[in-house]
Amino acid sequence: MDHKDAILSRLREEIDKTTELVYKYRELTKPIAPENAIGRVSRMDAINNKSVNEAALRKAEAKLKNLTIALSKVDDPDFGICIRCKQEIPLGRIMLLPHAVTCVQCAK
C-alpha cells in the first residue's frame, strides 16, 4: 500500500468520530430514574429510545474496536488484502470503510 499516510489519517479521523459517538450514546443510555416526573407514555418512549440508543452504542463500540485493530495492522504486509479472496481491496473502499477486511465482492 503506497497510500499509507492517507489511510492512517482516515483511520484516525474515523476513530475520533466514532469515539465521540460512543460517548454520546453512553450518555443517552444512562438509566432512567423512576422518580423522574414524566408521564407514563413519556416514560415508555424514553425506555424505547434507550433500547434504540443501546443498539447504536453496541454498533459504535464494535466499529471503534475494528478501527483500532485496523490502525494497529496498517503496517502489516497483508493490510488492504481481502481475507477471503486474497485480492487487494480498492483504495476507495478502504477510504470509505477504513476497517474493511473484505473487498466488495466478498462482502456480499
Primary descriptors:
single chain, 108 residues, mainly alpha, Four Helix Bundle (Hemerythrin (Met), subunit A), 64% helix, 0% strand
Gross CATH architecture? Up-down Bundle
The poorly predicted ranges are none
Amount of beta strand: under 5%
Helical residue percent band = 55-70%
Sum up the overall morphology in one term: elongated
Question: How are the secondary structure elements laid out?
Answer:
Blueprint: H1 4-28, H2 40-73, H3 91-96, H4 104-107
Can you put this structure into words, describing what you see?
The protein contains four helices and no strands. The chain has 108 residues and is an all-alpha fold. It has a single domain (4-107), classed as Four Helix Bundle (Hemerythrin (Met), subunit A), CATH 1.20.120. Helix 1 (4-28) runs antiparallel to helix 2. The longest helix is centred in the middle third of the chain and has 34 residues, at 40-73.
